[in-house]
Amino acid sequence: MPIALGGGGLFVVLQAQGIAAAGGYSPVGPSFFPTVIGALMLLIAPLLGLGVWRAHAAHADEVQPQIGGPIGEPIGEPTGEPIATAATAPRTHALGWLLAAVAIGALGIERVGFVPAMTVAFVLAAQAFPRHSTTGSVATKSDATNTNGRSGRPLLADFAVAITFALTTWFLFTVGLGLRLPAGWLSALPGA
Asked: Which residues are CB-contacts of 110 (< 8 A; sequence separation ≥ 6)?
């Protein structure tokens, strides 16, 4: 991940330098913000790499298989299975939910409009995060998984929050700021 972040940052910085600046009086051209974002990505990449390395080093003894005690003192039969805890177990399903959310948002915004695309993207992204119990601790796997294999968070609640955020954002940009976001089914409304 740190390598991808650094590579993406370098790509953004290099591509930003190719943006042609139109004549004007502003000292900040169109390549300024992409350059800043790319530079920040380049700065954060080694920090992320250091964090990953430290986390791996701290948990190295927890995830190694136990194969025995000191020489001549076996502690049991080796299982060959790593010892994984909830904190060290990979959450690849969360990455899948987030990638699906980004893809739906990016591909759907022009086709169906901002509100439907962002609503679906929000609901998909919400599935990547575990439900928390009322005590503030993460619920157990059996508590946090419904019959569909997704997080135990109710889809209806995710949908309600998503549609509220998407509609509010669309109205603020379109009506409040006069910036047009793809309307989709909202194009029938006045001012859309």
From this structure: 182
- Taking a C-beta distance cutoff of 8 angstroms, is the pair 92, 128 a contact? no
Determine the Cα–Cα distance for residues 108 and 111; give it in Å rounded to an integer.
Answer: 5
Q: For the chain, how far is it from start to end, CA to CA, in angstroms?
A: 40
Q: What is the pLDDT of residues 168-180, one digit of tens each?
A: 998 888 888 888 8
CA 182 – CA 192 distance, rounded (Å):
9
* CA atoms lying within 13 Å on the CB side of residue 171: 8
Convert the pLDDT of each residue in 92-123 to its tens digit. 788 888 888 989 988 888 888 899 999 999 99
Structure confidence at residue 71 (pLDDT): 55
Among all chains, which residue has been given the structure tokens 């948002």? 105
Distance CA 35, CA 41 (A): 10
What one-character-per-residue DSSP string does 76-118 give? S---------TTTS--HHHHHHHHHHHHHHHHHHHHH-HHHHH
CA distance 96 to 142: 20
Residue-range domain boundaries for the chain: 90-192
